Amino acid sequence: MIRLGLLMLVTLLGVFMTLDRFGQGDLRTERRPEPAARASAATDAGAPSLTAPAAGTLPATPPVDIVPAASQTPERTQRFPGPPLEPSPEYAGATPEAAQVVPVDGPVLYVTADRVNMRAGAGTDNPVVASLTGGSAVQALGPTGGEWVQVQTAEGQQGFISAQFLTSDAP
């Protein structure tokens, strides 16, 4: 075991000595290009120097080759129009029906937290059905004395909310 440690130490010492001897300097500096002299963006683009023109050298009328922007802008066209929508064969003669909300006669409760998840079942292991903001009114569909209350929103969505986030007091 001591021999192995000594062998590793001698090997590492040899590697470090080799790197110290031959690893001096930055070899990439020789390949780097010289930094270019700083110039303004106008000079880079080939424009003349931005100095004030002599008095009386500006033309009295603008150039005639100015084109209005409206004539330069192409008309927008839909490139890949799809086919017109058609109802599926099983609903060919039917008209869409509005969603019917069944009125419920339970007590109205209000959400007390800023944002509360309404879940598909009683418990946090159930998927989230909707997210309600603070002050949202919901109607209780079942008893309100347990940990979870089954509720229905004004849009007709049903789910469960933890009772700690509900109150009967209007905000």
Automatic annotation (TrEMBL):
Please provide an example of a Pfam family that matches this protein in its UniProt record. SH3_3
Q: Compositional bias of type Low complexity: which residue ranges?
A: 36-59
Q: Specify the SH3b domain's residue ranges.
A: 106-170
- What are the boundaries of the region Disordered? 27-95
The protein's matches in PROSITE patterns, at most eight in alphabetical order, are given as: SH3B
The source's domain of life comes to: Bacteria
* Database matches in Gene3D superfamilies: SH3 Domains (2.30.30.40)
- The stretch of residues making up the signal peptide is none
Q: What is this protein called?
A: SH3b domain-containing protein
Q: Which organism is it from?
A: Paracoccus haeundaensis
Q: What is the lineage of its organism?
A: Bacteria, Pseudomonadati, Pseudomonadota, Alphaproteobacteria, Rhodobacterales
